[in-house]
Give the backbone structure.
Amino acid sequence: MKNRTQVCTAAALVALAGSLAMAVPVIDGKKTAGDDYGAAKWVNANPTGFGDNVANSSNGAPLGNPADVRTGIELAIPFSALGSYVGGQVAFAAIISSGDSSFLSNQLIGPLPENSDNLADPRDVDLGASSTPGNQFVSTTPASGSDAVIVDGSFSITEPYVLVPGSVQTTGTGFGNSNTATAVGGGGSELNAVYMYANTATQTLHVFVAGNIEANFNKLHMFFETDFSEGSGQNLLAANTGPGALTRLSDQVGNGFGLRFDAGFSPEFYLNVNGGGSPTPAFFVDYASTPAGGLGDSFYCGSASYGNIGGALTGGTPGAPAILASVDNSNTAGVIGGNSGTFVLYPNPDRAGGSEFNALYAKVEGDRVYVLITGNLETNFNKIGLFFDVEGVSGQNRVRGGRSTGNTTFRPNVDVSFNRLVRMGVEADDTEPDVATNGLKFDADFSASYFLAITNGSGPARVFMDAAVMRTSGRLQTPGGFSLDYGSNDGGRKRSTPFSFDGPTANQQNNAPTGGINNLFANYSPRLLAANIDTTAGSGIFPWINSNLGAVAGNKLALQIDNSNVLGINGGFADEAAALAVETGIEFSVDVRELGIDPSGGIPRIRLAGFIANDPFNFVSNQVLGGLPDGSLNLGEPRAIDFSTIPGNQYVQLYPEIVATVRCNPADIAYDTGEALPPIGLPGGTNNGVTEGDYNLFFAEYFDALPSCDIANDDGSALPPFGALTTNNGVTEADYNLFFAIFFDGCAF
């Protein structure tokens, strides 16, 4: 089967023009009718060499007995530490995180659905989003009275605690299953259930969290809402000054990224418990208020040994509330570690067990280029490397490499994607591509001026995109050899909205003109960011012309991935109809200004090359845009790849639309000039059916048995799509006979 370029007739394009003019694709990793991409610009015909994503389910162990756990983290909180609380309704949430609070587990109260992944970076987590169904908080009016409660990290049936409805854990822990039945414990962290009791005699709220908080300084973050009037607390954790754990969860720069709760929960108070250390482990308690607007009070409440009886803390800062606490990590029951019951591995929009390209769709609408590559990107951080060729914008036919230490004159490519763009380029440092003998090389008529790298992982689902400008002579840099071009990236935990390269990070070059930072990094689009550096500054730093970065924000790049496909091509067979049936994959858009285009002058020709590779970008698959010859295996080392030596074009033209004349019969193999018709050659030119141009091409290629002459089965019947396939041993006398039988009848066949 040939790799096919899908084309439209001029009449079809005119008919489509009106409907396409107002259709802006939604960047969601899906091909929907409203996107109006039109026909595929390329369809893959090579089975994937990087694994096929197939439907698969698995069975885990029973979840466990979370409601039976009777040891864990116990607190006695004065009513005065909870604002004006004097008893009554309390809303509560709890989350376990890593010790630096940069990675959230799947252990929450209220719990996540069964078999949920860890949540990762808290600043990317919106608990109100569809990716976290249900409420990740609970609300209760605790039983009240004057019964005594002993704070010792456990509770007995004689104590007045009452289970908080909706708090019993529903998913196995992703933070390890505890296996040591001592007060210090070991091996894991889990939240099984929450119990509360309000002692109105001592004015104390007793909270018991059944489970474990591993003594490796993992943190148990707890949030309380007691004032349910509008605007009292923080639905989005923002502008909190302490303790450090709370700060790491919060939106400190005002860009909207911070832990966000469900719409019905806005806590005003925060506690965290964590511990560890050697040779005498201890646990620690911090407290803060989280009022609307931020900047609440913060106190260290003190520490104690594990399993302490009575809950007294020592060493707290003056003014800290008199909270009692005890931690007993002896539980080894509760929920299991990992998945439970029957669970679906694939299909899953956030997970894939293989990587493949099926088809490519693209359009230019307004000032943006939209691209959807249907298929899958395995969630093991396999990469897609993409390269734009824009007519009139200088680029690289062979990818530039790096430079040796101390060389201030050679201009390498920028450091991006952990310097993997340079890794694919010319191997010898300080070597110009035109004299190099290796380094990734494109087709002769393709020069890459812009680079994108796309990747994703699971457990939890994470998506990332890197971007860089590829200038013909290498990166912009100071006279001292320091970068003025950026390696840009955006991404993190997958969310319902696309990643958009809107900051907040953008390194600023300093010590101009001879010193500075060797590599600049940003979360903004790299070309427009570099264009906004004032390189006329004579000393100090090279400032941004637009100091608030407004010219480079605004969604200049956007990305989303949907890995739901389990059909399309597979590891042994590629079918065009099956590939075209796939409607999910990798979708992104780019502002044309970021590609170096001034839209006021019109949109020039835009082409895209790309492939799937492994994580270090040192092994390329056979999944290549534009396609490889039938039966091609994985390509391997990118520095050894020269696409100009591989038949066909290893790129796809995104814009303008390619218009080609349809063949009238099997003998119509060439334009009137004798140039081969697609899918064998490039489209373009005049085709008036079977003419001398076809005759000339047939005889020019017949004796070398080139593919364009293979027009018939061995019995002389036409090959598909003109006839049924029987036995075909390539170019034989049957092709010669069919050609002449048709040639003199022109297009009558």
